[in-house]
Structures are given as C-alpha cells and as structure tokens.
Specification:
Layout lengths: L20 H13 L10 H5 L9 H12 L2 H18 L3 H4 L10 H5 L13 H7 L30 H6 L17 H9 L3 H12 L11 H11 L9 H24 L4 H27 L9 H17 L4 H5 L2 E3 L14 H10 L28 H7 L3 H5 L3 E3 L3 H31 L7
C-alpha cells in the first residue's frame, strides 16, 4: 500500500532574509519529517562529486540554481571551498604554519597567533568594510597579470584525493586587492606571506564583501566574523560559519528541491497539453459509457470505457507530478530553454569579456577549469542577456509544446519516476473499477 501514498521530495521554500543557523535548522527539520526517500544514486555527495548522470549531474545542479532558483553562488563558493580545503591541506607545512587555525568561539586566543586587534570593534557595515582596510571592494589594483604565478595543486603524490580527482584542481591568477594599511609592519609582512593570500582576497571581493558581484546571502554577524578572521589568516577554518550555513542549505533545501524538479521530464507547455489530453480521454470514456448505456447494445460493451478512464486518469495523475509517461518509456525529457545555447556558456564571449574588463580582470584568466561550465570568478549570475532568451521567446507555442528531446541516463531518477507512474496506474485502477461496475450495472436505455 505504500506505493499508493508515495510522495516525491517536498518543496522547501527559500528563507526570507539572510541565511543563518536558525533558518537552516528549519530545512534540517523538514528533511527529517519528510518520509519520501531519495535514492542513494541521487545523494548530495554523489551529485557534488559529479558522479550522477544527466539530468542529475553537477552541471544540471548548477543550471538549476542559476536559472530556476537564482542562487548559484552558493554552490559555486561551496565547490571552491571544498577544493581550497584540499589544496591548503596539501600545501607545504612551512607555509601553512603562517596561517593558524581560527577559533570563532575564542577569537582572542586565535589572534594571539596572528596579530593583535580588537575583535569586538566589528559593528556596522562601514566597520565591516574597514576590517580589510578597503574602501572600495570593486577597486582592483592595475597590474599586468600575464606572467602572474598560478596556484597549483601541491599534493606531491600520484594519487589525487577524492575531491581533487572529481572536481579537478583550480588555478587562479593572483590579482591582489588595493593595498591596505595594516596595524603594523610585522603583521603586514606576515599576512602577505600567508599561503593563498591573493586568492583569498579575490574570493572576498567576489562572494563575501558587501556589494560583491556574487554576494552570499549571509547574516551581518557571520559576514563580519568571517571578514575579521580572513584579515588575519587564510586557514580554511576562517570560513567555518559560511561553510556550515551553505552545507545545511545545499543539503536540506537546494538538493531536495533539485531532485523534485528533475523528476519532471516535460516542459510547461507539454505538461499543459498532456493534462488536456488526459481530461479529453476521461470525457471520452464517460461519453462511451453513456451512449452504450442508452442504446440497445449489450451492457458488457460498456467495459470499453474503462480503457479510456484508466489511460486518462493515469496520465492526469502523472502530469500533475510533472511527469510524462510517454517520455519516461522512451527514457527522454524535453530540452531546457537554456540548453539551446550552442556556445554552452553562461555568457556570450563578448558580453562576459566586457563585464570582466570593467573589473580589470583578464577574460582569459577567468575561464573555468572545472569539469562543468562554471565561471568561478566573474560578473553576477544573471542570464537576462543570454542569447537563448531571444531565440526561445520567438518560438511558437507549437514548437515549445513539441520540443526537442534529450536522453535521460540516471537510473536513480528512473526509479523515482517509475514509482510515480506505478502510483498513478494504481490509483487509476482503483477509480476505474467502481466506475465500470456502476455503468455496467445500469439497465439498458433502449433509446436507439
């Protein structure tokens, strides 16, 4: 009987306001209350490791966050942080010793290893900006970076780590922020010598600083604490508040919503067409049963209406879940509008290059080195200027309804979809049997 009451993952709405541990805890509680299972093949770890197949791959997850929920910066930063943690751990000990671990519960003990400062001085947004000694986070120092050294993976071994083997090793051009005046010369020399300092500065300007192009939706308290910690160390522990919030959000809100969205294999026009088609089949079934009941024909002919009822109700229930039975049997889905972009880029080359030139960053130095189409550093995650929007807007409703199909390969997704279809077939049978018995039991009308 469980198949009759199966539900795909419940939708988790976005939290209103900045993300914090209290708001993220609601997602965790919702996940615990949800009784619907997500197969192991579609687990968060498997998708993040880029082991799931389309349409549940890491690239599909990024596209979903970019085009549907509009918070791709969460995953972009999270992937960078995973890779950065691995690279920092594999860095030479004499370098990592310059960046001590940061303790947010006792910042005073941490700062004794990285310089003296007053942690309680963090207040409003202006003070947050002044923590890094930068008045304009968009101002990047003019510099020829064509010969800038790149940050390499320093594992020194032939066997890559699990994260490195899956996500690849990033290389960042080292573009420093405008020089800030540190409290003293010793701290300035110490900070400049810390490993990955220039990369951390660049991450701050793109994701953490107020008004950043891809500003994370953090609470003021977490943002100020992280900026203060990064002023004194480049240790991955300085990102702990952000990492914890993003991990809870991605695992318990974005990931279940992504799986729920991936179950739908048809676009909106096709789903509306499918619902209309299913309703028409149900109406035809009632018409057949009514006409045969009013005629001289044998009552057993009325059983033919059951085929129309069962077929129509099955497709109507499946379509309500956004699922097309025909596409499922063919192991295909409708192509997404943004997938029609022939260049496969989040931006046209000319538009992105122009946007990046405004930030004084060389376009060639921002090309993604991930196994997915993702620009880690660059302009905001907006897509209103992408070429596919104009092309899709000019398509007729007929072409949108009968869209091009692409294959689905993830077996874990097929498992969920088949479960929904079996549920629809079971409910259709339960509804069809009483209707058939009722019309078959009626006496003949003998009207013609």
């Amino acid at each position: 009987m469980s198949i009759l009451f199966y539900k795909k993952p419940d939708y988790r709405p976005k939290n209103e306001g900045p993300l914090n541990l209290q708001s993220c805890q609601k997602y965790v509680e919702k996940t615990k209350e949800c009784k619907s299972e997500i197969p192991a093949d579609l687990s968060f770890e498997r998708i993040i490791s880029n082991k799931a197949l389309p349409p549940c791959s890491l690239q599909d997850f990024i596209d979903y966050l970019a085009y549907v929920t509009h918070d791709a910066e969460n995953l972009q930063f999270y992937l960078w942080l995973v890779d950065y943690h691995q690279r920092f751990r594999n860095a030479p000990p004499e370098e990592t010793a310059l960046s001590p671990m940061w303790n947010f519960d006792d910042p005073q003990s941490s700062q004794r290893h990285s310089g003296n400062s007053n942690y309680s001085a963090i207040g409003g947004s202006d003070k947050t900006l002044s923590i890094l000694g930068i008045k304009d986070f968009d101002a990047i120092e003019e510099e020829d970076i064509s010969n800038a050294s790149l940050i390499e993976d320093r594992s020194g071994g032939d066997q890559p780590s699990a994260y490195t083997a899956t996500l690849g090793t990033l290389k960042f051009s080292e573009i420093p922020l405008a020089e800030s005046k540190p409290p003293d010369g010793h701290q300035r020399r110490s900070n400049n010598a810390q490993p990955f300092r220039l990369e951390i500065n660049r991450v701050i300007t793109h994701y953490i600083a107020p008004g950043a192009p891809r500003e994370l939706n953090l609470s003021h308290k977490d943002r100020a604490a992280v900026l203060y910690a990064l002023r004194r160390t480049t240790h991955p522990s300085a990102f702990h508040p952000i990492k914890k919030v993003l991990d809870l959000t991605l695992r318990n809100q974005s990931h279940p919503n992504f799986v729920r969205w991936s179950i739908c294999n048809g676009n909106k026009p096709w789903t509306m067409f499918l619902r209309t088609f299913a309703i028409c089949n149900i109406v035809i079934g009632f018409a057949i049963a009514t006409l045969l009941t009013l005629s001289h024909a044998s009552r057993w002919y009325r059983i033919l209406a059951a085929l129309e009822w069962w077929f129509g109700i099955t497709n109507l229930i499946a379509a309500y879940q956004g699922l097309c039975v025909l596409l499922l049997r063919r192991h295909t889905r409708d192509v997404r509008p943004w997938e029609m972009n022939e260049q496969g880029r989040r931006y046209g080359a000319s538009d992105e290059e122009a946007a990046l030139r405004h930030s004084k960053v060389l376009y060639e130095e921002t090309k993604s080195r991930w196994p997915v189409k993702m620009e880690l550093f660059g302009p905001p995650n907006t897509w209103d200027k992408e070429t596919w929007m104009d092309r899709y807007g000019m398509r007729s409703i007929f072409k949108k309804t009968f869209e091009k199909e692409v294959p689905t390969q993830e077996q874990g997704l097929h498992l969920l979809q088949n479960r929904i279809v079996r549920q629809a077939e079971a409910w259709a049978l339960i509804i069809t049997i009483p209707l058939t018995i009722f019309f078959t039991a009626l006496p003949k009308g003998n009207l013609y």
